[in-house]
Design a protein that fits this description.
Elements: E1 2-3, H1 7-19, E2 28-31, E3 35-37, E4 56-58, E5 68-71, E6 74-78, E7 83-86, E8 91-93, E9 97-99, E10 103-105, E11 122-123, H2 128-140, E12 144-150, H3 160-174, E13 181-186, H4 196-208, E14 211-214, E15 219-223, E16 228-231, E17 236-238, E18 241-245, E19 248-250, H5 252-256, E20 281-283, H6 296-314, E21 327-334, E22 337-343, E23 352-356, E24 360-364, H7 369-386
Parallel strand pairs: 1-2, 1-9, 2-5, 9-20, 11-18, 12-13, 12-18, 13-14
Antiparallel strand pairs: 3-4, 6-7, 7-8, 10-19, 15-16, 16-17, 21-22, 23-24
Helix pairs in contact: 1-6
Amino acid sequence: MILGAGTAGTMMLNKLEAELSKDEWHITIVDQFETHYYQPGFLFIPFGIYTKRDVMKPKREFFPPGVDVIFSGIDLIEPDSNRVKLSNGKTLNYDFLIVATGSKVNPGETEGLTGEFWQKNIFDFYTIEGACNLSHFLKYWEGGKMVLNIIEMPIKCPVAPLEFVFLADWWFTEQGIRDKVDIEFVTPLPGAFTKPKASQIFGDFLEKKNIRLIPEFNTGRVDGERKKIISWDEKEIDYDLLVTIPTNMGDSVIERSGMGDELNFIPTDPFTLQSKAHENVFVIGDATDLPSSKAGSVAHFQADILFENILSAMDNRPLRAKFDGHANCYIESGFGKGILIDFNYDTEPLPGKFPLPGVGPFSLLEETKMNHYGKMMFRWMYWNLLLKGAELPIESQMMMAGKRV
């Protein structure tokens, strides 16, 4: 049984359905919603690059025939009894469970964030509603102080906030009002990114684009009346437009089932992707508590590893495939250019060429037009290859070939 038909769950469904004997195994996938969203595309909606229609398709388009698809909420997971209770009243049993319930923003976790100014001059762009509302706001905004604020880590796609302010710099320039907009990037991290060397490079990009970086700001509450975000130690930052990345949390069913940490992420073996508490439960994508990035590329690399380990578990063999924390992220930097980073648990982003040593065509830790094309091509790859479980020409393990240490 697979819980969740987002990126990770759909990839696992297609990989397993193609491999497992239908005489021996029956696959069931459960999800509450029938629409699949290309979440990396939400970033582009506020700036008119994508529309809502560009980032949504019916989930059934990506399900192979012969699997049992149930659209229902999940009331409770009972891993000690190998069963799942659904919101529609059904109880399902399983031999192996893959939890791919993802994560979502929870603005209600921050005092004052969802008050009367929510979706008026306070927006997120991690939901389709927030991205579309922000798009409408920006069409008519004449300038002021825009603050992008990351409430706390971890978040989905840690580079997306950087991409947002880079694109905002481009967008306001195109609209002829860049000189009327102050942009601040406010983060709880000590720098612009989670990895120190890349953080310094991105910090330089922010400075070059006249975007002020405010590190180590731990947001405690929002005062919508006074247009201020206030840290736990009572520092204040004022804004005219607040773009927030609220607290990211795992699905509430994880909390109800007693399977998660304080943010509802499931304790997971960082290498095998097996639940630390239950041998026949595996976790993938944003639902894990792993120190790897919560990003689509990570789910793709995890899926290759989990596929091998699930088959091994079904045959009562040791789980030999190991996930190394591999993440590969294209970062849109505005003005038709992009940056690419490739890293894992142990190795920070390094300069070089990717995926072919000395050839590329993509450049690591450099701003190039080719990296921008890679970012824009990814949507086609996502819909046509990635979700369908196809093999991509990128190894699940990070390669050092082409990188300069």
